[in-house]
Amino acid sequence: MRKILSWVRGSSPSGDEEDEMEMGEEEYVELNTLSGDEVKSKVVVRPYVIDDFSDIKDILDSLREGYTIALINIKPLKEKDLVELKRAINKLKKTCDAIQGDIAGFGDDYIVVTPSFAKVYRTKQTADVSKG
User: Fold this and answer.
1) What are phi and psi of 48, to 5 degrees?
2) pLDDT tens across 4-46, in order?
3) Which of 68, 78, 82, 114 is the most exposed place for a label (fewest CB within 10 A)?
4) Crossing angle (nearest 10°) for helices 56-65 and 82-98
5) Residue 27: how many CB atoms within 10 A of its CB?
6) Distance CA 127, CA 130 (A)
7) Is 20 helix (H, G, I), strand (E, B) or coil?
8) pTM higher than the cut 0.85
9) Can you tell me whether residue 127 is helix, strand or coil?
10) How far is CA 70 from the centre of its chain?
11) Cβ pair 130, 93 in contact under 8 A
12) Is residue 2 part of a domain?
């Protein structure tokens, strides 16, 4: 078949061109065939409310997955027990450091925790939790 095509074109391919054509036939691209549920590449912004220290387990698990930005309402725990609140915030800070994320407070009742690919824009109104 190649001889016929080269005869029609009027020239014969050189040895290098033949090698390139053969290599081109062997190359292929592998596509990702996983469904959308199996590939978690979308960022999710999730609100959380901390009523008790045990409530941070779900927050920590979702942060470790790496695709969740957590908006955490700390008001119920703040009104209930300040010692438990400090303990919960320290646990969030340690996890945030481990995943190389960012953590900041905004307002008196909310904390935002982001994974490594996102940073919190800070102004004078945004309190830095790590300094507090």
Assistant:
1) -135, 155
2) 666 566 655 555 555 555 555 566 666 666 555 555 568 999 9
3) 82
4) 10
5) 6
6) 9
7) helix
8) no
9) strand
10) 12
11) yes
12) no
Phi, psi of 52, rounded to the nearest 5 degrees: -150, 160
The 10s digit of each residue's pLDDT in 3-14 is: 666 656 665 555
Strand pairing partners for 44?
A: 68
Q: Which of 110, 120, 114, 121 is nearest to 100 (CA)?
A: 114
CA distance 129 to 103: 6
Backbone angles phi, psi at 59, to 5 degrees: -65, -45
Structural domains of the chain, count: 1
Residue type, 123: T
Structural domain harbouring 63: 44-131
Helix (H/G/I), strand (E/B), else coil: 47: strand
CATH code, domain with 120? 3.30.110.150
Mode of pairing for the β-strands spanning 110-114 and 68-73: antiparallel
Contacts of 125 (CB under 8 A, 6+ apart): 106
